[in-house]
Design brief:
The complex is a heterodimer of chains A (198) and B (459).
Chain A: H1 3-14, H2 33-36, H3 40-50, E1 54-56, H4 59-68, E2 73-76, E3 91-93, E4 107-111, E5 114-116, E6 121-125, H5 133-136, E7 140-145, E8 150-151, H6 154-159, E9 166-170, E10 175-176, E11 184-185, E12 192-197
Parallel strand pairs in A: 1-12, 2-3, 2-4, 4-7, 5-8, 7-12
Antiparallel strand pairs in A: 5-6, 6-9, 10-11
Chain B: H1 5-11, H2 15-39, H3 45-56, H4 61-74, E1 78-82, H5 85-98, E2 103-106, H6 110-114, H7 117-123, E3 127-130, H8 133-140, H9 157-166, H10 176-192, E4 196-199, E5 203-205, E6 210-215, H11 219-226, E7 229-235, E8 239-240, H12 243-258, E9 265-269, E10 281-287, H13 291-295, H14 310-314, H15 316-321, H16 332-343, H17 363-367, H18 374-387, H19 399-405, H20 408-414, H21 432-439, H22 451-458
Helix pairs in contact in B: 2-12, 3-12, 16-18
Classes of the chains: A alpha/beta (198), B alpha/beta (459).
């Protein structure tokens, strides 16, 4: 259907109603005081953990965690410049081999663009990620979050989200309750979603 | 008197399914209350958000659409317009065929259910796979979703495992954890070989020219990592002005739908990706399919629906009869209003009985995140159907009563006669609906009919 005809049909239909003024609202109208309490970082850690995400503040504890999960191999996103010594403990590829080895990585590690306290979300923008598959295909995924990049509220987060071709909020492991309402983690994406705060 | 289809469906419903639907619906309703209260303990704050969600979409539909088209196009998205389901389906097939693509992965979308896309693509030789677990479960058995958020709410683990075995997805295993893992393995191959991803859109941001998708499973991100072409289809009512308003909706959507504070994944797609594995081109198809007609009618409020399912979760009728009883894409209170509208005035008869599957208790309006006055719309739909003189099964004939009630003299003359009812042998009626009704009830003695006399004397 022609674009103009389509839009005109909508305009004509809308004209049958009295115009309603656009409501004005303050950003704080939407912000949850309980979800944001304690500051950006504390709120992020609390809300991310509530969604079964794992939070690490030191590389040693992360290495120990990955070892306890039986990890031997990993894939690190090409845009992640520092591997935090993980390469000493695991065999790490710098490129996701989609063709030959899509299930061959015990864990993936990538740089998060920033994080949000209110909804406990880590944010991956295409501009900071070399390959989307690193974040979604391995069973364990680690996001490296710069503690200075954590914002407190969702409106603050939204204001710096939609400037890349693609961005995604991730608040924990991939999950479903589609079979008789039973919660199962690790549907398509990670069954373990961890964060390393640096 | 014929039995209503919805009653018949309920009568034949497997008791286990009935119980499952009831538990899941109540669970979501309770979760909604809990999470909204946790997030907004302040008096009236959640209410204010709902008012905003309603008001934001009362405004500037055409202007938002124009802005969205412009922004999307400047982001490198090809924007198309479909008048109806048929045109939308043909557009999508055309895009796929031109790329000689054979494998399509789908991200759960009620709009694609509405236009019955899957069957059409499969008939045309395209391997089309639903990636949401619930949608996959019903797709392989050729079913419709029975709930807009939990499509397989009516299925038991044993028959899911049997279906997986029958369709070669995995050997029989009815542990929910294993069913999910088997689907993970099966779908991974589908993702990696997919040429095209088709999604809906939870929201479209006009100013930024972005579509927003909310999922828990991450199938959106996986599909959009592997495919070369992304096609998103959305009714024009999904457009909101900008990401600023999105905060209102994101804070309501997951809490209202499943009682989560937020979904696990929220994707913001502005066009072709720039990462290594990402779509090289993106299409957005805006769908009318009766929406402009609805916008111009007294039912325009229904277009503010954000498809969270809170109304059906809360509905006492839905909890009893389950989604398939409503015989259409959208069940529950939403479906009662939307199904006859989408079917159009020529097909009103098809859903004419639905508005009667409602006790007007008002619970749906209490929980709707967009404050859609659903009971009012149900009443308006009853009125519309009545005026269209469409035959409705099990309709009680009120003609005689209407004649009496509009003839004051006759009415007055007959009033004293109501005491005659005391002499009717009501208990002798043993059969039919009246018999069933009277089996457990005794009528009090009628003593009325004297008010006018009393009023004349004392009034």
């Amino acid at each position: 259907m022609d674009k103009q005809i389509f839009i005109d049909k909508v305009r004509q239909a809308q004209g049958k109603h009295n115009p309603v003024p656009m409501p004005t609202f303050d950003e704080n109208d939407t912000v949850s005081t309980t979800a944001t309490r304690g500051g950006a970082k504390a709120a992020f850690m609390r809300n991310f953990t509530a969604n079964h995400g794992d939070v690490f503040e030191s590389c040693d504890s992360l290495v120990e965690f990955l070892k306890s999960k039986g990890c031997k191999t990993g894939v690190a996103d090409a845009k992640l410049s520092d591997l935090f010594g993980l390469e000493k403990h695991f065999e790490i590829s710098r490129e996701f081999d989609r063709q030959n080895n899509p299930d061959g990585y015990d864990f993936g590690i990538s740089k998060a663009s920033f994080a949000i306290g209110e909804n406990g979300a880590i944010v991956f923008k295409d501009s900071d990620t070399a390959d989307r598959l690193n974040t979604i295909a391995p069973w364990i995924h680690v996001a490296v979050v710069d503690s200075k990049s954590i914002v407190s509220t969702l409106p603050e987060g939204l204001a710096q989200t939609v400037d890349s071709p693609y961005a995604v909020y991730v608040t924990g492991p991939s999950k479903t309750t589609d079979v008789e309402g039973v919660l199962v983690e690790g549907v398509h994406g990670p069954g373990v979603q961890a964060v390393l705060i640096v | 008197m014929s039995v209503q289809k919805i009653d018949e469906f309920c009568k034949n419903l497997d008791p286990v399914v009935k119980k499952a639907v009831r538990i899941a619906s109540i669970g979501s309703t309770v979760g909604r209350e809990k999470t909204l209260l946790e997030a907004y303990p302040e008096e009236g704050k959640a209410e204010h958000l709902r008012e905003l969600a309603n008001a934001i979409r009362s405004y500037n539909w055409a202007e938002n659409l124009e802005t969205a088209v412009k922004s999307l196009e400047s982001n490198g998205v090809k924007v198309l317009f479909a008048e109806d389901a048929d045109e939308a389906r043909r557009m999508i097939l055309d895009i796929i065929a031109k790329r000689r693509a054979k494998n399509v992965v789908k991200v759960k979308s009620m709009t694609t259910e509405e236009i019955e896309l899957n069957d059409f693509l499969i008939k045309n030789g395209i391997d089309t796979v639903e990636t949401d677990l619930g949608e996959l479960i019903i797709q392989i058995d050729g079913e419709r979703p029975s709930h807009i958020v939990k499509p397989a709410i009516h299925r038991r683990r044993e028959d899911i495992a049997r279906s997986f075995e029958k369709h070669g997805i995995s050997a029989y295993d009815d542990n929910p954890q294993h069913i999910t893992l088997n689907a993970r393995k099966y779908l991974r191959k589908k993702y990696l070989s997919a040429d095209v991803v088709i999604s809906g859109a939870n929201y479209v941001l006009a100013k930024e020219g972005a579509i927003v998708l909310a999922t828990n499973e991450g199938n959106s991100r996986f599909s959009m990592a592997c495919s070369k072409t992304h096609i998103a289809i959305a009714g024009f009512e999904k457009i909101i002005p900008s990401s600023r308003e999105l905060a209102v909706f994101l804070n309501l959507l997951a809490r209202s739908a499943t009682g989560q504070h937020s979904t696990v994944y929220t994707d913001f797609v502005r066009g072709p990706g720039s990462a290594k594995n990402s779509p090289q081109e993106m299409f957005v198809i805006f769908l009318d399919n009766g929406r402009s007609r609805i916008l111009g009618s007294e039912f325009s409020d229904i277009l503010k629906c954000m498809r969270c399912g809170a109304c059906m979760n809360r509905c006492p009728v839905f909890r009893l009869v389950s989604g398939h009883a409503y015989r259409a894409t959208y069940p529950g209170p939403l479906g009662i209003v939307l199904s006859p509208l989408l079917a159009g005035d020529d097909n009103l008869e098809k859903f004419a009985d639905l508005p009667k599957a409602c006790s007007l208790c008002g619970a749906c309006a209490d929980v709707c995140p967009a404050k859609i006055p659903l009971p009012d719309l149900v009443l308006k739909m009853r009125d519309k159907i009545k005026r269209a003189h469409v035959p409705v099964p099990n309709d009680i004939n009120f003609k005689a009563w209407a004649f009496l009630a509009t003839s004051p003299k006759l009415w007055r003359a007959l009033i004293p006669l109501n005491k005659l009812a005391n002499f009717l042998p009501l208990n002798a009626i043993k059969i039919g609906p009246m018999g069933r009704w009277l089996k457990s009830r005794t009528l009090p003695k009628l003593r009325g009919g004297n008010f006018r006399k009393w009023f004349k004397k004392n009034g």
